[in-house]
Write a structure and sequence with these properties.
By secondary structure, the protein is mainly alpha-helical. Helices cover 47% and strands 11% of the residues. The protein has helices at residues 7-19, 34-43, 53-61, 66-79, 83-96, 152-164, 168-179, 185-194, 205-211, 214-217; strands at residues 27-30, 48-51, 113-120, 125-131, 139-140. The strands form two sheets. The protein has a three-stranded antiparallel β-sheet with strand order 3-4-5. Strands 1-2 form a two-stranded parallel ribbon. Helix 4 packs antiparallel against helix 5 (83-96) and helix 6 packs across helix 7.
């Protein structure tokens, strides 16, 4: 028992488990609690963290109107076991304007808000929200899309190409061919820096690029 579930609590718990013999941890699955994620990075270096399917679905459905939730939930169920369907679903949700879900109004912190249409920026459709607090009533977007010009799937693809061993310039060129839009190399570099804690492979990339070409970095096999 503890007064809070901050990272120190989880680090103490993980240390206790290791003292009792826990070894070889490769993957930790939990809800989206920030304290757990930080503790995993500190206590199990080289392991990965993943949000559980139930919590992932709940978080995603916060972005979707009730009449569409059942349909999107079924697509999420299929997408979690198929990377191609996952990417397709991200792009579809982007087009539908459900990319970012707000947790609260950034102006008054009220959780009483509703969907209020969408706004098209240069590369994506952004969901708008209307605060229902009588003393506020302002329109806002989710914090994870505010100031973002490129859809999440392009960010993910860009980091994936870069981690395969392509240079910043080569990665931007590949994004241009695949999506018809391309960030500047400096923008791609900012993404890589911003999401570094989520991409543990970035520590191995300097060594991998010396040993393998991009096409040989990942080996694809079919299990009979």
């Amino acid at each position: 028992m503890a007064d809070s579930e901050d990272s120190l609590f989880w680090e103490d718990l993980f240390d206790d488990l290791k003292e009792r013999g826990l070894r070889g941890v490769k993957l930790i699955v939990s809800d989206g609690h920030k304290g757990i994620q930080k503790a995993v990075r500190e206590s199990f270096i080289g392991s990965s963290w993943q949000m559980c399917y139930v919590h992932l679905t709940r978080q995603a459905l916060k972005k979707v109107p009730k009449k569409k939730q059942k349909e999107v939930a079924e697509k999420i169920k299929e997408a979690v076991v198929d990377r191609h369907k996952y990417n397709d679903l991200i792009m579809e949700l982007d087009r539908m304007g459900y990319k970012g879900a707000a947790d609260c109004c950034p102006y008054c912190n009220s959780k009483n808000f509703v969907l209020r249409g969408t706004r098209k920026n240069k590369y994506q459709l952004v969901q708008l929200y209307l605060c229902k607090n009588a003393e506020c009533g302002r329109t806002f977007t989710a914090s994870d899309v505010k100031g973002k010009h490129f859809p999440l799937n392009i960010v993910i693809e860009g980091m994936s190409y870069y981690n395969l061993g392509f240079t910043l310039e080569e990665t931007c060129s590949l994004l241009k061919k695949k999506f018809g839009v391309s960030p500047e190399p400096s923008t791609l570099s900012e993404w890589i820096s911003q999401y570094k804690p989520l991409c543990r492979y970035e520590r191995l990339r300097p060594y991998a690029v010396k040993m393998f070409s991009p096409k040989d970095t990942v080996e694809v096999v079919t299990l009979a």
